[in-house]
Amino acid sequence: MLQGSCDIVVREPMQTTILEMKHPVGVWVLSCAALLLLVPKAAAQRGLSGQQYDTMPFQQPNLYPAGIGPGGRLEFAGSEARPKILLTGYWPLSNHMLRAFNADPAQNSTGWVGSNWEGRGYDVYAYFAEFAGGGGQGSGDLQVDYQDTSEDFWRIADELKPIAVITFSRGFANKKWELEWNNRNLAVWMDDFTPPLQPTPAPPDGSVPAGHIRNSTLPLQKIVDAVNAATLQNIDTVIDFAGNGGGYLSEFIAYQGVWYQAEHADPQDPAWCIAAGHVHVGSMISLNKDIRATHQTLRALIRYIDEVTDSSTGDLSWFCPTTPHSAGAGAVLTAIGSQSITANDLELKVIKHVPGTFGLVFYGAGSQASVPFGDGQRCVSAPLFRISPVAQADALGVADIAVDFTSGRLSGGAGQVSPGSLWHFQYWMRDQAAGGAGFTASSGLSLTFTP
After folding, report:
1. How far apart are CA 331 and CA 320, in angstroms?
2. Which CATH number is 45-309 given?
């Protein structure tokens, strides 16, 4: 399903037909009618390129702040196993470049290298199909088939419980390492090879409307910088903000990844997933450089995960589950800065907020078992105090609340925060779109304060 202008450029520098939105010298500009006759499935896998950057034009709003603490996931990982990172690939070379991370001897006879990869504390697993002729549906895991991909991906993800997911597929006939920002929940897709030719159901994600976009939660600028730092000659590392994944299996598996991450975005979730996103790999990049770029991407991702899970803010813990709201996964309350009253640099941050809506932080000295609270639940016990002013989430569901210990209830009276004291925080949030009580609450956060 190709969207946008009918003036699409088609050229064939290799054996496959390539779609681009640009008009370089020596290419044909075709009408929509002619395009339908020339574009095979292979072109759709590459997506439609839009506005691209090698530097983020804004601060990526959907990343977790550094040092928010380990939460339930890292306690689980520390006691039972190393955290796992899931990689998936499609058509060559985007499957061959992952082969060393495949733990199946039938697909990787040289031995799995993903165990505690590079001594970084993470196990890395890769899954992909095999393509005897270089294309088609393939065989094995994650075939170019909607039903097969969906069944395999969720089976693998549920088994691994990955802390991060990167999906890869072959891109245009160029040397771009293209990080996709947009991943769409489409109602109509490009037909695959074997009936049923469309996903079942379509759209695949029934929790949001058709056409809903889930953005990449990979640390995009960190990845761009890491791949560029490797000085891989002629590789063009870009972030595609305005394009899409093409409405075929590339975008379908990309959506599975970001959907899985959204389902496990709460740090209290034993299967907490911090990041997910998709990379289109230019088919003119050599296998050796593909492998090196993959390694740099992984290193940047792991550094980000380490920053998120390394609690540097003091004694911090979560104590109350979040509740899904009208915009998806429930809101999570986190903290950045320090818990030093003298430093007075603490900031509370709400992520996964209902975009554009208002809310406020409330706190108390006691916690309790959850009780109904609007469409959510409250775990802070009375008496309750509020932190002013009211906050408003941005378009991507992030709200920031500065904490000033010298003003308001924080500075005196029953709600005063003093050195050594333990307080519990939640965030009250409007959610009229849910059609219930009109408001809900975030997860809870417990903080112990220092001088």
Report:
1. 11
2. 3.40.630.20
